[in-house]
Amino acid sequence: MSIIVDIISSGLLALLVVFLLLLLGDFLSTFLYHVPEHVFGKFHILVHHGKNRSFLHYAVLTKNPLVLLDGILGALPYFVFIPWFWRISPVGTILGLFLGELHVVWRHVFVLKYPTHRLIQKICRFFFITTPEIHFQHHQNAMVAYGDIFTFFDRPARIWLNFLKSVSVQTVR
């Protein structure tokens, strides 16, 4: 009986670490890198939202090192948590990083050729998970659809974006 309890508690801890890693990583990536880069930087906009950028080519197929650097800067907030979460659950940490990367590929590749099935869209909507179709909205209009993994970051990210824009305009005057 003790072994079963240990397995269940280890599994629950792993799931908790997966969730926290994705939640905290997406939060920091959105609010400390992605949104500020849209206001103060030119790097992300040039690489990720530049004209003549193929959605698929940018995210997955390009050999441009700047794209890789942009991806690393966006992923860095996830990596920050590895030392703490590893102590709680190495399996959860690895699974969280794997699922995060899988989500990057899914949201950048499948929208063009394979629309997300309606049932999966409903499940993702229920759990506030960004689908490829939602992420594609961000590529069409860089001022909407924030939150790489979780859609509930969109509204606060837009507020943060507007605040940073106002600060940016005030500092220029």
SSE inventory with pairings:
Blueprint lengths: L1 H38 L3 H7 L5 H7 L3 H16 L1 H7 L1 H24 L4 H9 L5 H9 L13 H19 L1
- Radius of gyration, in angstroms, nearest whole number: 18 Å
In whole angstroms, how far apart are the ends?
A: 69 Å
Q: Mean pLDDT across all residues, rounded? A: 84
Q: Strand fraction band? A: under 5%
How does this model look, in words?
The protein has helices at 2-39, 43-49, 55-61, 65-80, 82-88, 90-113, 118-126, 132-140, 154-172. With 173 residues, it is an all-alpha fold. The chain has one domain. The longest helix is centred in the N-terminal third of the chain and has 38 residues, at 2-39. The relative contact order is 0.15.
Q: Could you list some keywords that capture this structure?
A:
mainly alpha; 79% helix; 173 residues
Could you give a quick summary of the protein structure above?
By secondary structure, the chain is mainly α.
